[in-house]
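Changelog note: in this version the structure field was regenerated for every chain. One regenerated record is shown below for reference.
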Amino acid sequence: MKSGTRTERPRGVVLAATLQLLSALPFVLGTYVVLVHGAGAQAAAEAEVARQGVPPSVLAEHGISFGSNVADLPFAIAIVLILATLAVLNLNGRRVGRILSWTFHPILFVAGVVIVPGQVWVAPLLESMFASDPVLARVNVTALVDAAAQAMPGWLHYAAVVKLVLTTLGSVLVVVLLALPPARAYFRGKAL
């Protein structure tokens, strides 16, 4: 573990930090998609709803946005900054990084379980939501989602799947890796 006076980083810590940086990537890509393609996807969705004889305003009235909601961007950017900061702190052996990782990743896990599946399985989620509203129940959800997806990059669905895996399983793995004995020893000799 020691090489002269310098403590070598355990592979588990390097892997945990790598997972943290990889977990940030889908949030960066999502921010890009919202900024570059969100308005087009929303316009395509609204046009499809209108083609089906439903007022396009019904989407906004029910809070349905296909990437045009820039109000969520600060949240995504904050997650990116937090994950990058935690990765740097962990790579430098700062105990505060390890402690904050143990705090943040369970929160990210819950968000991954609750929020991200709706980004992966959009059509089934919308069908479930639309079923209880008489106006929305008339919408062909598959056609709506396809119209919005045509305005988005083809890789977006894969990025959402990766986000789901990294926010859930990746978060669990980060917590476990930072709890292993080599990680404990690495962080023990470091200042906060």
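Spot check on this record: The chain has one domain: 10-185. The longest strand covers residues 2-3.
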